[in-house]
Amino acid sequence: MSSSRLAIASAHHLAYAPQYVAQALGFFEREGVEVELLACPAGDSAIIDTLNNGQADLVLGSVLFALRMVQEGLSPVLVAQSNQNTRHWLMAREDQQTFVWGKLRGATVVVSPTNVPTPWVAFRQALFNKGLALDEVAFVIGYSAEQAVSEFKRGVGDFLLVDPESIEPRTGLKEVASVAAALGPVPWSVYCSTSVLAAEKNRPFVAFRQAVSAAAIWLYDNSAQEASRVLAKVFADKRATDIAAQVARYQRAELWVPDATVNPAHVATWDDALRRGGLMPNGLGLAQLCR
User: Name one Pfam family in it (predicted).
Assistant: First the structure.
């Protein structure tokens, strides 16, 4: 692969809209880099194999991919950032206009996202930020997302922690508190590579970062309906109205970073959360991965 061409491996997800917009609107071409987007299974850490076997130059996803690379003796580099917020919310059966996090003291929370650890780490840090200790809240853990919603609707627990995208919108449940608002911006989804590739492809990596930044700004500056028109071919399995609704949600949540340069302050926040949640290996810090 020439130095001006890049292959990007990631899950095929609307949350990663900036890279699809950058490709569709010619932002990559404008920056002088040719980009191929490779779809991989969501949440599968085997995605880093695409770096080892030369299929990809960058992988997009959780920073845990980079930590996995460290554990395998590789030298990861955080090249760029896509998403800055978790998409998880606390939900209730009824509207709670006066919700404060202190209401969780003595309450029971049904936890849905148990297939990956980062949503739990984010929620744990949100509790810490709001002055709540883990033993002040009861947790029901182990249900699938579908089971969690079903049990919660039947009366189990006082609140439900879930990604609203993963459940049927007609459940009647109400969003009462954003985990992201309590956590603050973090490098939720990052583009990662190896130190060897980062040195070899520095110029196209910079060009890629500039194009993705421009695409994120475009997504904030344009309507969700216009974004839906641009993304319709990429997500042909979704209805245009559903794409627009999801983009509008992401716009409100400020999901994407307007500047794809990895922010050291956000890295430090997430480093603390991962360390508190037990996911940060001893002797390693995320700041070491930013070069």
Answer: NMT1
Q: How many residues does the chain have?
A: 291
Higher pLDDT, 76 or 43: 76
Q: How many helices (H) and strands (E) does the chain have?
A: 12, 10
**What is the rounded distance in angstroms from the CA atom of residue 168 to the CA atom of residue 157?**
19
What is residue 291's predicted lDDT score, i.e. its pLDDT?
A: 58
**CA distances (Å), 35 to each of 7, 80, 106, 211, 249, in order?**
6, 15, 51, 11, 27
Architecture per CATH, 5-84+186-289? 3-Layer(aba) Sandwich (3.40)
Contact yes or no for 273/129 (Cβ under 8 A): no
The residues pairing with 59 across neighbouring beta strands, listed in sequence order, are: 9, 192
Who contacts 136 (Cβ-Cβ below 8 Å, separation ≥6)?
104, 105, 106
Least confident of 141-145, 159-163, 242-246: 141-145
123-134: per-residue pLDDT in tens? Answer: 999 999 999 999
The two domains 5-84+186-289 and 89-183 share their CATH topology (first three levels equal): yes
Amino acid identity, position 69: M
Where does residue 140 rank: exposed (0-12), middle (13-18), buried (19+ CB within 10 A)?
middle
